[in-house]
Amino acid sequence: MLRLLVASAHLPAATGAGPGVHVYARFRGVPRSTRVVPAERSPAWNETLVWPLAARPLRPTDSLALRLQLWGQPEAHRLLGATTVPLRCLAEDPGLPLDLSQLPLRDPQGHPTGATVSLRCSYVPPGQVAAGNVTSQPPEGVAPCLSPPRPTPVVGTAMGMASHHHPKPAAGKKEDFQVRVRVLQGHQLQGSAIKPVVTVLIGEHRFRSRIRAGNNPYYNEVFSQHFHLTPLQLAAVPIHIQVLNSRAIRADAIIGAFKLDVGTVYNAPGRRLGGTWLSLQHPRHPDAGCCGYLRIGAAVLRAGEPVSEREEAAGSQEVEANLLQSALLTPCVATLQLRIYCAEELPWEEPSRPFLAGSKRSFVAVAVRASFAGRTVGAGGTVGAGGTVGAADPCPGVTVSPTQLCTRAMPPDAKPTWNEVLFFPLRPSPLALRSKVLGTAKLHLSHISSAGAELEGGVPGFLPCFGPSFLPFYGPRRDAADVPSDTMVAYRGRVLLELSTHTGDSDGRQQDAIAPEDITRVQRLLPRRHRLGLCAVFYSATMLPPTSEPLCFELSIGNHGDTGDTSCRPAATPQGHPLFDGNHYYYMPWHDSKPVVAVTSSWEDAGQRWDGQNLMHSVGERLAQHPRTRLDVELRAARLQLLQLLASAAAAGPPHRAWAELLPEAEAWLGRVAALQAEPQAGVPDVLLWLRSGARCLACARIPAHRLACSAHGPAACGWLCGRTHTLMLEVPGHLHAQLRVRLWLGRVAESQELPRYLEGALHVYAETYENQMKILGKWSRQALPARPSFSDVAGRVALPRERIRPPQGWCWDGPWAVEPPRRLLPEPEAGMDEVLEEVYENQSRRRGGEWGPAAVPSTDVAGAAVPPKEEVVCPQGWHVTDDWRVEVTGAVDEAGERCPHHSPEAPDKAWEYASLWGGRFHLQHRAGDACRRRCWRRHMVPELPSSVAAIFLLEGTADAEEMPESKQMAATPKGRGHPQHPTPVILCTFERPSSFQLRCYLFQALELKPHGTKTTADPVAHVSFMHVSQSTRVLPGTLDPVWDQSLLFHRVQLHGDPRGLRDEPPAVVVEVFDQDGGGAGSFLGRSVCTPKVWLDVGRRKPPRLQRYPLQGPGGPAGELLAAFELLHEAEDGAMARLSTPPWRQGTFSIPPGIRPVLRLMALEVLAWGLRGLRGRCLLPVRAPSLEVQCGGHVLRIPPITDLATNPNFPINAFLLTLHLPVDEEYVPPIRLRVLDTQGFGFRPHVGQACVQDLARFRREPDGEEQLPQPRVPVSGSNPGRRRLVEQILHGHGRQGKEPPKDTQGQPEGSPAVPQVYGCELEAVPKFEGLQDFCQTFPLYQPGGQQGDDPVPVGEFKGLFCLYPLPEDPGVPPPPRRFQELPPSQPQQCLVRVYIVRAFDLSPRDRNGMCDPYVRVSLGAKTLGKRDHYVPNTVEPVFGRMFEVMGTIPLEKDLRVSLLDHDLLPPDQEIGSTTIDLENRLLSRFRAHCGLPRLYRMDGPGCWRDQLSPSRALEHLARTRGLQAPEFSADGTAVIFGGSTFLLSHFESGPPTYRHPGAPRERLALHVLHAWNLVPEHLETRTLYNSAQPGLEQGKVQMWVDIFPASLGPPGPPVDITPRKPQSYELRCVVWNTRDVEPGDISAAGQRMSDIYVTGWLDGLEEQKQRTDVHYRALQGDGSFHWRFVFPFQYLAAEQRCVLPRKEHFWSLDETVLKVPPKLILQVWDNDKFSADDFLGVLELELTRLPRPAQRPQDCTLKPRLSPWPWGKARGPPRFSLFRQKLARGWWPCVVHEGGAQRMAGKLELSLELLDEKEAEERPAGKGREEPNAYPPLQPPVRPDSSFLWLLAPLRALRYAVWRRHRCRITATAALLLLLLLLLNFIYSAPGYLAMKLVNPLRLFGAGSKH
Fold this sequence. Notes:
Blueprint: E1 2-10, E2 21-27, E3 30-33, E4 44-51, E5 63-70, E6 79-86, H1 88-92, E7 98-106, E8 112-123, E9 175-187, E10 196-202, E11 205-208, E12 218-229, H2 231-235, E13 238-245, E14 254-261, H3 262-266, E15 272-281, E16 290-302, E17 323-324, E18 334-344, E19 366-372, E20 376-383, E21 404-406, E22 417-425, E23 437-444, H4 445-448, E24 466-475, E25 490-503, E26 511-513, H5 516-525, E27 529-544, E28 551-557, E29 579-580, E30 586-587, E31 593-604, H6 607-618, H7 630-652, H8 659-674, E32 687-693, E33 696-703, E34 725-732, E35 735-748, H9 755-758, E36 762-776, E37 779-781, E38 791-792, E39 811-813, E40 818-820, E41 836-845, E42 853-860, E43 879-881, E44 886-887, E45 897-905, E46 913-915, E47 932-943, H10 966-971, E48 986-990, E49 995-1007, E50 1020-1026, E51 1029-1032, E52 1043-1055, H11 1059-1064, E53 1069-1075, E54 1083-1090, E55 1093-1095, E56 1107-1113, E57 1116-1129, H12 1135-1138, E58 1144-1145, E59 1148-1149, E60 1159-1172, E61 1186-1191, E62 1194-1198, E63 1214-1222, E64 1231-1236, E65 1246-1252, H13 1280-1290, E66 1316-1317, E67 1336-1341, ...
Parallel strand pairs: 15-17, 55-57, 66-78
Antiparallel strand pairs: 1-4, 1-8, 2-3, 2-5, 5-6, 7-8, 9-12, 9-16, 10-11, 10-13, 13-14, 15-16, 18-22, 18-25, 19-20, 19-21, 20-23, 22-26, 24-25, 27-30, 27-31, 27-35, 28-32, 29-30, 31-48, 32-33, 34-35, 36-37, 36-38, 36-47, 36-48, 39-47, 40-47, 41-42, 41-45, 43-45, 44-45, 46-47, 49-52, 49-57, ...
């Protein structure tokens, strides 16, 4: 099933008005459409479109066509954009959905429309269980249940609700992988003055980076390791990353570490982690927190998978936004406690020396070993000396040593008891060891715990818990046949376990004894045991192997019913020899009496748990379950809550909703239900069905017990296989042993009274014995039989005289002994009949007007098959003739139909079976050499008293036969003396009357068959098996796509049971295809199991439709079968007689017209261009190859190539083949190509072959015309980052030291146009159609079917096909031929220029993670490239080289570009190579031989280099496309081309602004060429591969190729792509002052002070480290320096990196060019005399992202500055580039990293100035205060000569000693003293003022003077 989730779209010009929009999708011709939404700018659908695929899986060549359309508009104005989505990745990896965001849409001409769409594609293969379904899959070799076909819940995922969980890689065969880890940079690494180095451990291989300095080092180093493992093994490979301090001692060197596994990277999107920050933790102190961050990029490259483009390392990302936390270094937060109590039902061990006296079977010493593997708790019982050898393997194939715990070994006992508890910390650890394993079992954490994420509505999760309950163990069976031991799954006992989770750790304990109270509690919690009854009715067994030993089917549950366990009664069908069906297969002749097997056993009551599990399968009404354990309580609560949520959601939803809206919601609910279906605590083993041949087991089917359980709580609680007839395929890998149709029932014996309701027939119980006689002296006698009793069982080993046989207890006889007729030896149609009628049709024919005469086939049956004449018809064995032949005149026969006389069987008293020897196969008719005979006696028995229990379950335990040694049984005499015998009763289910059916098989064609061995073709024949009959098609010689067109009719097939039940569970039809080459059975090619359509009422029948059924061969998929099947009920109303018989053609029935595909006359045009690179077989060169094209039964033979060495093209290239093909594309057969060589003496060996699928891509309409493009103004769409890089590489010589322009539309004068950069190969660009528009390349493979998974081509066929319909009327002229205008096919000389720009992501070849790459270009026998031109020590080399070579195309068509690693001594290792087909580029109509520049220049950079001018190129385009030549105006500003007029004003708004423009005619022609979507001037990115590691990407190279045919004249000048040299810069840093630096010392007076100095260097240039002078005794961290640092460096502006060429070691031969970001590192130190200096702080400034400094010291802080306004938000410091601003001055904070965080340790006042080389020469400045001391001149800082001595500077000393330390106290004391003085003054003057106020002497003095 294919699902397409259409999320949203983007319409740049949408206004919201007008018609709505919808998405129209088409897959395999089936359209789907979303709903219509308003045409907004960003419309959203979130709608899922579904395509059911039935049995036809998704192919890698399939694609999905999308169209964004306006609703209700005309066709011409409807389309908004279209695209095609290839589904190759989805077909190869169905588990990984295809997410496409902002997918661009294009118009019909291929131009971008600006509209985009976001979608997700997912694929569920046919028959695969979807995600979320926890139903366990049967192991390999265990037959799956084929019926009934219940729907499997499929979980859909929609955007917005998708989980981030990716599926785990599936285990399979080993593949090639490469794991790459790129270490980018560190951030905030803990420590002071560190020099960190990174070590990376990938598996067992350790890598080490360079040593860098600082807390934020930059590395950009790549490490890779190759693996050849399975995906499951690869997922467990660890990746351990450590950051070490190279300065520290080894014990304290670890800064931090991080652990992850490759599975984390494998499951990431695109199998890549790009630019992820790792949170480092100390391994010995995990609770200390984060120790820093390390940014890495990791990728897993898988052979054959494309690699997504990696993120650019440049730029910075937020740590929190892309942070990966370590799960392996976290402390243990919980502990799993696994309590192991006891075991039971362990198997017996055979004696190692059975020939010794006293040897007998016994139990073995057993121990339980358990392992915790992340999501699985596995336990295994081991056996061996002492019981401690080996371990279980819950994760097969993983090879990493885990931590495993094992109980003590118990002595041999039937029920060993351990009572031990094992402790597992909750830390995932993969496991894998294997040795002699008795049995294994698994507990998935998803089944015994829940995270609460699966459910909604507040349902809580719960921790892992289990039991106490029994856990069954399964292992290999010892009596299995010659098949792998891991394919046989047998019950090996069960162990009583209990698992719980407790917080915290286990205090270092790994195992301990269980407390006695826990043992008592477990015994109380164990449920009561009940007897369970298991019943199986065997309806049919077909497709059996032809063995000499008798076959039987064994039914067991646990040890009960197992014939290998002597403690239990075996349960098996009666033994018998299969009969040949007359065609190809064997079957068991059970007829209308079907064998029944019943088994009773005692188990804990699991019915209530099964009820809940089965109710979750059917989502019933409620869960009636009584909880016993904690897991029962948790599961019951979660299930009830889920059902309540489901019921409320169903009640709240609207009644009328579209199916597209309900489907995703229903799938989500199904996923939630599936998450709670598992029931691990049932404790009852699975039911096993074994096919036995004598003492050997051939095949097995395993069925979970809950699927068969019958419940008294209604049908919803019953298992979905309970009481239903279903089909089991018993097979082992590569071989099918049996097809078994059986009905099973499992339930309580006490409730088995309902068993007859589930059975369709009546049960009968018989006692059976065989009377044996031997011919002695010509007379039959049963006296003195050698080694055989006269009355025995069917095997002849146990003596069973009739008079000694007694019925079981509680049973009585019902009738006398009677002879059973040997119907098991009769063919199926004759069984159970007393009289049959033979029928022969006598055929005659005549010409017009002639006489009747014998036909070509004189005698046939009713189906038309040839039979012997009636005189030669032989009466079958056991029958005799009762009448003579007569002509039937009343029946539905022809004139000459004759009926055979009646045959009657022989009398029952003479029904003997004869054989030549005892133990041989018996037959009915007596022969001359027969010396033995036997007959079967049976006696019916019934229960004495009626019972509420089913009668068959009363036999168990009461009918045990007396055990006697075989010698005594042989010697027993039938005289009646001795003990009574109780043999195993025979239970039969008899049916009164079978139903007649007719099966019609319509086999049309088989596709893509794989021949056996080294054969190139096959002679396929199809054998169809249905029940006990089979037929075969005719043999079609010499084809791999046989078209049988044949109908096989199976008349009067007798099926027992209710016909309505057959409608629900029809029997399977098995089709096997063989290669019938020569005699014998032929070679098996493939098998398909098909289900027919059942019609009980033939009157309502509808013709079936042909479907594709996959064929499975010995090595996997083996092709497809196109067929249909229907099963018609032959009722008594005669409706079948009215049904027409398929038409008779050429001796067989063909497919009726209503079912047969409709054919149409088609024309297949073949363009056979030539053959390339053919390799002969057996060292014989290919001389004169020819080609055969086969399609639809027609063969086209193309004349051979006479001289392959001089001209590999065919002499005639165009051919026409007329044939009839199906109208439906699904039925169109493929095209097969066969290449044959012509050798001496007429020998024509097969050289190669190919199969061309999906002919729809070659279909063309006869009246279709090519749409001409409309004039378009070119729009720049390149990536600006890529533009800068390309311009820096291609045109570095023109603008040294200047930054590239931001856009190419307004380029400065003299600047060339930047070419288009493609991130893939030019052939992979969708609009260029792979450059195979003229002819495609079809790889040819070696003939034969055994090619492996990755066959190697032996050559190539270049050609093309065109398929179109022809008119049926001969008078209508045919459409014109397609392949008419062809270029000359003769070889031509060409000049090839190869431009190699750069390479990146190269796979390292040296131990240091680097390589020394150089380029080698090969064309034919010519090779260019020198070893000396290598780039040392890099994985991202920039070459900038051009190679020029002459070649003859197509003789030298493959251009090979290789990158090799330069070694000191040759030979050099190849890094990788890529091959370019120059012929495709030369022949392509997209003009790929030389890209079209954006501008036309006559001279200078970007000069026109093509041989043809734009106008001549336009004329050549018109000639190749079959158009009229262009007509230019006189001034060249207008042209008429293809019926349209193009004006120069359409493309240019004014005169050109660049230099050396060409004539208007040429410029206009160039614009018109661009409008045709031809290949522009480009730079393609090609992937490199290495033959030593096929399919694994080894890196990428960016390049382009120009091809100039010599016949067109000399080309233009080549392009200079010499790389730009880095520019010299000089950074001047002036350290002015420091503030608040942490003092490192304390003076004698208690003052904190430091002897401060500052060091600085540029990152990567540690050798240029400079330091200031020392400011001694700087109090409070205030220092003054006035010191200048001068750092010269090389810088690439386009990459924003400093270029550091230097030698890594003194012995290095070459310089290593490092590219690091420009970063200034300043450190503040405290100078000490007699010890190491103390580190005070560090400041790291990245010059391209420089934080803006503070202008005042108090504003300098680490925290974001707050806005002064209350509504303002906190904002970080803005950043700028010093390369733009050139000058900066201010205060920056210094930091110290401690305790997982950073704090501010001071402030630095700096001035930074950046000058280029010229400016530095014009304005020289010295280091420090040296001359020339200028720009700016630095004066010595004002410091006292002797810092602050008391005698010389007492005031300054008081200031620092007293004032700064006690200024607050001094200020407070002064204020208090002032207040106190004011108060005292007030108290002193207050009385005087009061007296003066009262007396007022001035007033009295004034009054006295007045008087």
